[in-house]
């Protein structure tokens, strides 16, 4: 477990950023820390430079048995690249790229863990969490770039990727909260009757997720409350100047929702920055609490210490290789999304289930291995922290990137999907409230996730039905035919000529 093994010269209560509270303590500890400065800690390899044989050996062994088995999928990486130059075979290309992302993301996560071992505790876990979410950020950005802003009325097979992007944001959170957390509870509970974890995990985790859910809910709630009060945008049709409906058309509501989404995204990103600042500057943050409780309880601690490790040069090479591979494969993956939707895979199932599963696979394997080894606090943190980052940073970042690229992407999610998110957070919070878990609770969370996956498979695409779109009740509220429009225009022209 990488996060439980930190440099020996990093005191367990030392924050990453200096504060008035710990300044004096850090000064007193300087002498003791200096004495350990030249000692190798658990993250050091004892080597320097780059050694191909050792590099491949460490890469193969990875962080745990499950991650090592994932490495057998590496042949899919060249296969996916070669298939890209073969005409046709669109579904095969998507499947190959989908599978190839898993070992590439696994290497990125492992390289992040190796880098975290070589840094002070708080800095290491911040870097490890960020690198764990880089696959998701790359995926979101590629989806935004691929989205056709002129095809906003259709589904994925028509170039409109907004439903898939929005579903992928919520799907990433749900996959972590229900599937990953459920599997951690389940496999951890198989070895132990129950697993106790620190209260700060549930308090900070569920609290921040509720704040994020509130922010994500606002644009959708605003739209739902006012969509029945709008009038359609009819070219050439002018109502009385100054009337209420003259100002509040469907287009005006869309613009307002977009502006609210922009402002909300900025606010959520600020909230994430404050969260990171607090964790980095507080002596007794969630990082310290999680790591200190579990770092000596890892069942594989001695084995992990004895494993060969990357040098800093090898870690850098692994990061470059994995980032390049992940970016290339995600571009190839997104290029084939339209063909997958045409083949009958619904937008919501693709975004809410398939994409989060592949971009979170490596991170989930690490969390499940930690729960199996008894370090449940770190396992829970690896489930909750990515969900917090997706809700407070990655999701809002999609809106900001779309804004900069001139592509109107908002946070007006389907009401059903927002309801699933809020209910999932409440269910998980209830399971975390008592401070312990068992295999039954894990199995129930996984069953909830399976039920959601089944529902998503049957949920219609936006061009068929939507619970919170412009094709819904707002349009039905004003059933105006073309004959009526022509008559109204004729009457207005007659009045204007008098």
TrEMBL record:
Keywords noted in UniProt: Ion transport, Membrane, Transmembrane, Transmembrane helix, Transport
Subcellular localization(s) per the UniProt record: Endomembrane system
Membrane-related topology note: Multi-pass membrane protein
GO biological process entries: intracellular calcium ion homeostasis
Region (Disordered): 22-46
Gene3D superfamilies named among the record's database cross-references: NCX, central ion-binding region (1.20.1420.30)
GO molecular function ontology, one term from the record: calcium:proton antiporter activity
Domain Sodium/calcium exchanger membrane region: 91-279, 316-457
Biased composition (Basic and acidic residues): 31-45
TM spans (from-to): 68-86, 92-110, 122-144, 164-188, 200-223, 260-278, 316-334, 411-432, 439-460
One cellular-component annotation, GO: fungal-type vacuole membrane
InterPro entries: CaH_exchang, NaCa_Exmemb, NCX_ion-bd_dom_sf
Family to which this protein belongs: Belongs to the Ca(2+):cation antiporter (CaCA) (TC 2.A.19) family.
PANTHER family membership: VACUOLAR CALCIUM ION TRANSPORTER
The protein, known as: Sodium/calcium exchanger membrane region domain-containing protein
Native source species: Lasiosphaeris hirsuta
């Amino acid at each position: 477990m990488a996060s439980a093994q930190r440099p020996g010269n990093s005191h367990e209560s030392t924050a990453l950023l200096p504060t008035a509270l710990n300044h004096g303590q850090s000064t007193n500890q300087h002498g003791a820390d200096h004495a350990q400065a030249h000692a190798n800690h658990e993250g050091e390899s004892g080597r320097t430079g780059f050694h191909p044989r050792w590099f491949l050996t460490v890469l193969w062994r990875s962080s745990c048995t499950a991650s090592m088995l994932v490495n057998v999928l590496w042949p899919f990486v060249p296969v996916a690249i070669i298939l890209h130059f073969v005409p046709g075979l669109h579904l095969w290309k998507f499947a190959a790229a989908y599978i190839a992302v898993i070992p590439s993301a696994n290497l990125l996560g492992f390289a992040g863990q190796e880098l975290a071992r070589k840094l002070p505790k708080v800095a290491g876990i911040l870097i490890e969490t960020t690198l764990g979410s880089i696959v998701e950020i790359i995926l979101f950005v590629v989806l935004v770039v691929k989205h056709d802003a002129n095809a906003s009325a259709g589904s994925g097979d028509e170039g409109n990727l907004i439903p898939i992007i929005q579903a992928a944001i919520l799907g990433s959170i749900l996959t972590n909260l229900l599937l990953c957390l459920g599997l951690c509870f389940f496999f951890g509970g198989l070895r132990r009757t129950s697993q106790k974890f620190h209260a700060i995990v549930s308090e900070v985790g569920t609290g921040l997720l509720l704040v994020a859910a509130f922010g994500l809910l606002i644009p959708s709630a605003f739209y739902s409350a006012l969509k029945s009060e709008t009038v359609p945008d009819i070219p050439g049709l002018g109502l009385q100047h100054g009337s209420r409906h003259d100002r509040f058309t469907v287009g005006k509501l869309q613009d307002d929702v977009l502006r609210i989404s922009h402002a909300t995204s900025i606010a959520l990103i600020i909230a994430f920055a404050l969260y990171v600042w607090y964790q980095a500057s507080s002596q007794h943050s969630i990082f310290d609490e999680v790591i200190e409780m579990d770092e000596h309880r890892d069942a594989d601690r001695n084995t992990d210490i004895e494993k060969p490790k990357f040098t800093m040069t090898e870690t850098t090479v692994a990061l470059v290789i994995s980032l390049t591979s992940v970016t290339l494969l995600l571009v190839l993956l997104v290029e084939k999304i339209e063909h997958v939707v045409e083949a009958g895979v619904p937008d919501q199932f693709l975004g809410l289930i398939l994409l989060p599963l592949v971009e979170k696979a490596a991170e989930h394997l690490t969390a499940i291995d930690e729960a199996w080894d008894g370090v449940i606090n770190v396992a829970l943190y690896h489930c909750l922290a990515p969900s917090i980052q997706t809700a407070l940073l990655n999701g809002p970042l999609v809106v900001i990137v779309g804004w900069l690229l001139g592509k109107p992407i908002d946070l007006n999610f389907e009401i059903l999907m927002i309801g699933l998110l809020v209910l999932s957070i409440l269910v998980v919070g209830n399971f975390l409230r008592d401070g312990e878990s068992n295999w039954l609770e894990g199995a129930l969370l996984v069953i909830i996730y399976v039920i959601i996956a089944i529902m998503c498979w049957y949920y219609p695409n936006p061009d068929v039905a939507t619970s919170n779109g412009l094709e819904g009740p707002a349009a039905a509220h004003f059933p105006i035919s073309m004959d009526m429009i022509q008559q109204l225009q004729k009457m207005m022209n007659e009045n204007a000529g008098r």
